[in-house]
Write a structure and sequence with these properties.
alpha/beta, Alpha-Beta Plaits, TIM Barrel, 2 domains, 6-stranded mixed beta sheet, 18 strands, elongated, binds ligand C2E, binds calcium ion
């Protein structure tokens, strides 16, 4: 059997209908379905127009056509996507060989067009019938999961495995649970103190979001914050964190604890048209002075849409909010750009602090960042201080404020109050 239909674009249902009769159950013999995604044409289309992208696609189609040997079926399944079914594979390893061959011959292939040259980029996913799936529908689902893995990991090809399915199902479950948790306001905010390194005085806290999922237990913000950004839940989450942390700040103030509150703001939130309004509005509701609120912003967040971000940050700085560059040192911004950032504070990332006493390179970088911040008259906070010696070394370098497990880990509001009482009582002695 040899079919190559690359004119019609089959949707998933039609693809299943087409391959279903070709899947003959045989325990010793597999059929492999491969989905081939041609990435480059999308970018080319955006840069050079549809015509050029179609030209590249037709060159790739011709090459793929050459692959269609005995027992193969090639179908077009989208504008930039093909499905290749290979039957009668006595050894499942032959599917991997086919993937390698396609990558070798078609991926990163130079394409010469009239006035420019480019390189192709393919991503592929593959699965086997009956080894991975017992029906055409399930086989297509497995291949999609494998393709998703290739895209997510930037690999040219991925062979499906059962664990992959479990991981993706877990991720989908986490996504839907996160949405519910945000909507039902069942996340938490914990607080980690920042102190003045020289005097030990309590300067403020950083509000850090916490999520305890009913099914998967504690999930790190390193996982759910990027997910919230990707799924556009981050706006609602941030508004909620702002409200909860400002309310807590006021409650503490009424109890005599008047400290600064720092909230993390992601780039997607800065991009919102009403970003400045939301911050001012929430601060207004709780009647907190802007100087008692720090907004922690990463360099990369501002770089995404620099002009408008800078305008918004300038408005906030003019109203006396404290602006801090978070994860300082991990971005790739130039000094030229750094000069333009309207900030009061830099927060040296914990990855430089952890090892600064043992690693000369890290120590040099911290010293450099401190000097840079000083020459711009900016305050400096170091996060990730895990021992006394590091705290002392930072003091010697002239770092004003510190945060880290050595001082205290993040904790719930109630616990923080008890901690602060104890800490301040000890400080007086
Ligand atoms: P970040 O803004 O860099 O926050 C500091 C992280 O370092 C926190 O991790 C904190 O618990 C941890 N940390 C502080 N001191 C130490 C230390 O001495 N040792 C070690 N090993 N870790 C220390 P966490 O709470 O897991 O938060 C991770 C990231 O998630 C944050 O990094 C921030 O980027 C993001 N995040 C957390 N809450 C929010 C939020 O409400 N909104 C946004 N946009 N991002 C948030
Ligand atoms: Ca932060
Ligand atoms: Ca950091």
């Amino acid at each position: 059997m040899l079919v190559a239909d690359v004119k019609t674009a089959y949707d998933r249902k039609e693809l299943c209908a087409e391959i279903s009769p070709l899947l003959n159950y045989d325990e010793d013999c597999n059929s492999a379905l491969i989905l081939i995604n041609v990435w480059h044409t999308r970018q080319v289309s955006a840069h050079y127009g549809y015509e050029v992208s179609q030209e590249i696609l037709s060159l790739i189609t011709t090459d793929l056509d050459h692959f269609v040997k005995k027992d193969c079926c090639l179908l077009r399944t989208g504008n930039h996507e093909f499905a290749l079914l290979i039957q009668n594979l006595k050894n499942p390893g032959h599917c991997q060989l086919a993937l390698n061959k396609i990558v070798r011959e078609l991926n990163a292939k130079s394409v010469e067009l009239a006035d420019f040259s480019t390189k192709t980029k393919l991503t592929m996913g593959a699965a086997l019938y009956p080894r991975h799936a017992m029906s055409a529908e399930h086989l297509v689902q497995c291949v999609e999961i494998a393709l998703h893995q290739s895209d997510a990991r930037n690999h040219p090809s991925t062979m499906y495995s059962a664990e992959m399915s479990e991981r993706i199902i877990k991720q989908l479950r986490i996504e839907s649970e996160l949405e519910i948790a945000i909507k039902s306001k069942s996340l938490d905010v914990w607080y980690q103190p920042k102190i003045n390194i020289k005097t030990g005085a309590l300067y403020g806290v950083e509000a850090l979001c916490r999520w305890h999922s009913t099914k998967d237990g504690f999930i790190s913000p390193e996982i759910f914050i990027p997910l919230a950004e990707e799924r556009n839940f981050i706006h609602e989450l941030t508004r909620w964190v702002l409200n909860v942390s400002f309310r807590t700040q006021i409650e503490w103030k009424q109890l005599g604890l008047d400290i600064n509150m720092a909230v993390n703001i992601s780039g997607k939130v800065i991009d919102d048209d009403d970003f400045v309004e939301i911050i001012k509005h929430t601060q207004g509701i709780w009647n907190i002075k802007p100087k008692d609120i720090t907004l922690e912003i990463t360099e990369t967040a501002v770089m995404q849409s620099m002009e408008t971000s800078l305008k918004k940050l300038n408005q906030l700085k003019d109203t006396n909010f404290v602006l801090s560059i978070d994860d300082f040192g991990t971005g790739y911004s130039s000094l030229e750009y750094f000069k333009k950032l309207p900030v009061n504070e830099v927060k040296i990332d914990k990855s430089f602090i952890f090892n600064m006493l043992n690693d000369k390179g890290d120590h040099n970088l911290v010293t450099m960042m401190v000097n840079l911040a000083h020459s711009f008259s900016l305050d400096i906070v170091a996060e990730g201080i895990e021992d006394k010696l590091t705290l002392e070394a930072l003091d010697e370098l002239g770092v004003q404020r510190g945060q880290g497990y050595y001082i205290a880990k993040p904790m719930p509001a109630e616990e923080f109050l008890t901690w602060a009482e104890f800490y301040l009582a000890n400080l007086k002695h």
